[in-house]
What does this fold into?
Amino acid sequence: MLLAIYSVCVFIFIGYMAKLLRLVGNKQSGILLGFLLNFALPAQIFNGTYHAHIDMTFLYVCLISLLCSLGGGVALFIIAKLLKLERNSMLTLSFMGAFGNTLFLGLPIVHGALGEDYANKVIIYDQIVTGIPIAFLAPLILSLGGKGSFSAKAIGLRLFQSPLFLALLCGLALKTLPINIPDELFTPLKSLAQTATPVALFAIGVQMSLKGIKEEWKLTSILLLGKMIIAPLLLFTIVFFSFGGFSDLWRMALIEVAMPPVVSAGAIVIKAGLNGRLAVSAIAFGILFSFFSVPLWLAIT
It folds into this structure.
């Protein structure tokens, strides 16, 4: 796992340095993100979905993890109410505190800690616990920010216009066929999928900004407390007292629940006109904090 965290640090650092040295501008960054979202990540999701073993136990773990993640968001909403924060900061805290970077950051860390089989499970986990819930809630957040209307049509369009969701559906559809597709046919797809993680981490580095940490450090600390301490603590407590200990499947879930806020949630916050400085600060500092917090969570299991 330490080797995986080291690789994550290197890719993010390269992206951040490319930004500081102005080697990558908005145009190049847009091309990279387009390649990532429309080709590399769908290939990774399709390949991972088809090869992952899915059963009721796995779906149960996803459900418990989702409830714990949302529990972190609810806890932050209550804290914001008690502190009498203004509306934009309250919405930013609760929305970003509910969803972690389960794919871009969680996938390589799970792969390093638990192996390829669990990395494949992360692909489906991410869509169940992060991707699809964000697609449902994004129109609501945008409407609260005065940037659109919340409707079933808006949710449906967001889901079925997403290459990531369509790749998940195609992978699940192929799994139901009574035939085995030769692994050799997946070779080009796997090569494309292997580019997803370094490109995604590079893109995170390009988007990172450490300025906002000084300006929003108090709210950033509260957000990360809810997302990276309270939410995984809920999961840890449930597993410890209800199941008596951690299997590798629950360790995968703990890593994912302990992830920092996801980049896409920050983009939605900024688009909705909420507290964008807090969103950027939480993403940047959360990534740095995860390099220490996630190994500690695994150590106590």
